[in-house]
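Report of the visiting student (M.T.), summer placement. My assignment was to run the structure pipeline on a short list of targets and document each run. The first record concerns Transposase.
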Amino acid sequence: MKILGLDVCKNSVVAWELTSLPKNFRSYFRDNKRPKDNDPLTFKANADGVSKLLALKPDAIILEPTGVHYSWIWAHICETENIRVLWVGHAEATHYRKQNKLPDKNDQADALALAAYALLHWGDDEFFLQFEAGRVALMRHLWLQLQSLNRIQSPIINRARQQLAREFPEAALSKSEPSKVDGLPPLWAWLAGRERSLKRQNTHYDRLYRDSIANQYNVGITTFTRKLSNLLCDLADWEGEIQTEVLEILNFPEFIPYRKVMTMFGIGVRPQALLISQIYPVTKFDSVGRFKRRLGMAKDEYSSGDKETMNTGAGSKLCRSQLYLWVLDQIAPVHARPNNEIGRKLGEFYDSRKSQFQDNPELWKQKAVTRLQQVALKEFKRSLSQNLIPIVSKELQPQLEATLNLTLQTMQMSLVTSIAAGDIAPGVKHKDVKRGFGNLVISQTAAYGCRLLFKELKRAVTNDYK
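After the run finished, the structure tokens were exported:
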């Protein structure tokens, strides 16, 4: 079996071919690495480069999803040519490369690590990312397009508001949410001169501008502002077209059970599209842990010496962001919670976690301070051990270490006494601690919501849910 690891660049890929796992990666790479100039396994993104890659006749290519827009065409071509395409997560690829002591910032080493990782875990889908084809992939693609349009609009809106600060200050900071009738934001539609069915919206801004101080002092609205507004209306129209496509896909029968469940949770249409594109079909998950990991809500343990931490870094960052926003908008405000059993459970969970902080804020502040001080003490000890102990004679090192340990214990007891007396470190602000634990409550609620969501989706697809 011939495996090609591909490290994707902007206009090329660097390949490494493997048929078996090397015994010693470091020496194997040193003996077989190729010069960067005129590398026969660097293929340009053109007809000649594709032809040369296909001529190798690989059984599979292995890719990372970083720079997905650049890697998509290579994956598409290979799938069309009946070559299997496997995707490896960035964290897994990086860890595997470091574990085998391959050099960093080296395209060939990255390609070798990808190929070797695939050979090592061949046949076990759990070690690879899964990308669904067809409607699911299209829905995710459309969701990303909507996100891109949102990012494009923000700087245009900011620039237009700067213009209005001098040309129409009364409207410069006014909200302009898209209308549910035609999807256009009223302020920008008025500035662009768009014809609308909602005449009262135009009338409102007509009256406001008539009485504007800028208008009274002969400061007109410039062509620049009107063209920016027109561009925002075009983007709003475009956004509506994409959202219509998303809805058309979501209304296919296979997604209806998923939508019913997510609507019960108070999850909106756009987040539904992203979440479904990540988890469909839910039957592929054999545990709630894997389900949460896919949505970016599983915690991974990172331990080193006397340091133990939990990091929510695996899975989809996009899904994690959407779940945080869902908790913030639909669960945290009591009035916005779904009026059903799911809403009650989520609300009670959020309130119980929040009350732990609110009932005794000083306790949480002390915990945060203690944690920061413990980190500082460990760093102080590490620095002394690296910089001071090595330059002392071997005979005096045990005595110095004992003195350092006694000093650190004394410092720690002093800190505990200070905290108990209420002498909190001046660098730690209450609002920062409050914000940190507020984020923790949101994260815990999102993770709990994922657990409930997994259970309800499993019931839905097995027809137990009506």
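Residues 255-466 form one domain. The radius of gyration is 29 Å. I thank the supervising group for their guidance throughout the placement.
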